[in-house]
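Changelog entry: the tRNA-specific 2-thiouridylase MnmA record was regenerated in this release. Current contents:
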Amino acid sequence: MRVLVAMSGGVDSSVAAARMVDAGHDVTGVHLALSSAPGTLRTGSRGCCSKEDAGDARRVADVLDIPFYVWDFADRFKEDVIDDFVASYARGETPNPCVRCNERIKFSALASRALALGFDALATGHYARLSDGRLRRAVDHDKDQSYVLAVLTAEQLRHAVFPIGDTPKAQIREEAARRGLSVATKADSHDICFIPSGDTRAFLGARIGVRPGAVVDAAGTVLAEHDGVHGFTIGQRKGLGIPGPGPEGRPRYVTGIDADTGTVHVGDLADLEVTTLVGDKPVFTSGTAPDGPVECVVQVRAHGGTADAVATVRDGSVAVDLRVPLRGVAPGQTLVLYRPDPDGDEVLGSATITGAH
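Regenerated structure tokens:
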């Protein structure tokens, strides 16, 4: 099988490539150039896709003796991930850019080019598993990335390979060291890859500008002024700019954001609880939406908690009734549905949250 491996320059994708070679496949490595100024995309363990990363990926490819290329996806990444991220925050939403990158870059633009060039599959270093075409959680639940892959269609999954999903992260590093790969001890990237400073508010402010508004309590009393709703997200407690706690000394949290009026609503912790979610553009990994209500487990953050629920598809959207409330759910987040079996590791589908109450 001809396999294209997306090589970020990190330990995970490097071991994924090595395992594909060991399996006897015809392997080619590719590094995605996602910035027109790649030197700006890494600061220590923050960021990715820098010249340093491309060099690390190339050295691994040399050790594995496989062809290696760098493909320029900077324009597509800016449009489909960065611009989408900024626009979503400007609407008062809380997006996950890793979800969009997998959906629109790695398993759409990259995979499409790979198939057009005659490759049979795209392999990545994601921590997830495929079994009979079904997406499942990784063995290492602490590193599991099935959440950010749940937007993939059945057709995209059919051409995907996740070689390391059956192995804990610590063993992946040990394997890289045994293979003599220089990235064995390389720090993992974290936070948002295109904001290496880690200052999301400043990044958004530079692109959205000042859009003044008010922070108000449940009674409509103005507690503070702000420079833009992009500086807030549902469930936020710190950095609200208000003089102190709420009644009886209780902390206050962002409970709602109205981007049209620039109003940020705050309230008590109990005000964050929701029992119903509504999601747009649902994707079901089997390729077929369920005919009726389906028992499931729902997850709304990449490393957040889960809740038992019942999901129903209605008029192109999905309604999820939670058996126990969740807190801090924001429009723009991705809801992922898992099968409620003893393992709870099979992904049923996903949708983008448009409402929660």
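The longest strand covers residues 273-284.
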